[in-house]
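dumping this here before i forget
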Amino acid sequence: MKKIVAMMMALTLMVGSLTGCGQASAEEKTGESAQSADDGKLQVVTTIFPEYDWVLNILGDEAENAEVTMLLDNGVDLHSFQPTAQDIMKIASCDLFIYVGGESDAWVEDALAEATNQNMVVINLMEVLGDRVKEEEVKEGMQAEEEEGEEEEGEEEYDEHVWLSLKNASALCEVIASALSEADEAHAADYQANAQAYIGQLNTLDSEYQSAVDEAAGKTLLFGDRFPFRYLTEDYGLDYYAAFVGCSAETEASFETVIFLADKVDELGLSSIMTIEGSDGKIAETIRNNTAGKDQKILSLNSMQSLTSKDVADGLTYYSIMEQNLEVLKEALH
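structure:
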């Protein structure tokens, strides 16, 4: 299979280089003008929004002397993304490439095989975090996907949503700062200073999360949706129930799942049912309609899986989204 994927990528690259048709421009990918790899600018490629935003914070004033690309910039989430020929070429020549490193990034190995910059620094977030990475969990009442039930013994799947832990974010920013310092030694001191200032902000917000949970009446969240927030809930000792695991492709919950979750809402006296960004809320509404009270609020936490270039241009940041999530969390646990 890997050989087939590699052959397909090579063919795509060849066709793309010959025709140049149907590929997004650099302006469309990042909102910046296209730059060649030899124009003197630091070339950084990230897969998802949190990595992109962390890099910008660490670059600080030097961001104007870098070209930073976010590959997943059009609302497609990590689990369904497939790189274009232009994406592969951007990765091949960049100075620093940052990706999550889970099952959804299986394409990265072949992309890195095309690398033309032999001095490229590569950061795999899950590899950096090591023992902090958690196995994907199918919790009581959760609707498992078919393949999960047939998974061979000993085969492990890991939860990819590592960026939703502020503690992880702080650790990852330290590594990114070191990588940027290695790629651009002339500004290493600036990158380290920017990183420490930003990490201080993340640590303060982390403390605010813990205080909010400590003061909350409830300690359980219930999602009528996928559940990508395991890292966040475990950071603060919260329990949860959900319709699907975080990486699930399921969109319709079974009768058994709906009834189980509705009964949990009643049993725990929950005042809210959670969804994630972009959800149509139908499963959450169905759960609510099967509770005794039928009056729960439906609240949404943002997992940052489908942000776009427009969201970036509108001023959304990793920090601001985590601040918004804190306010939603306070209301949900009230």
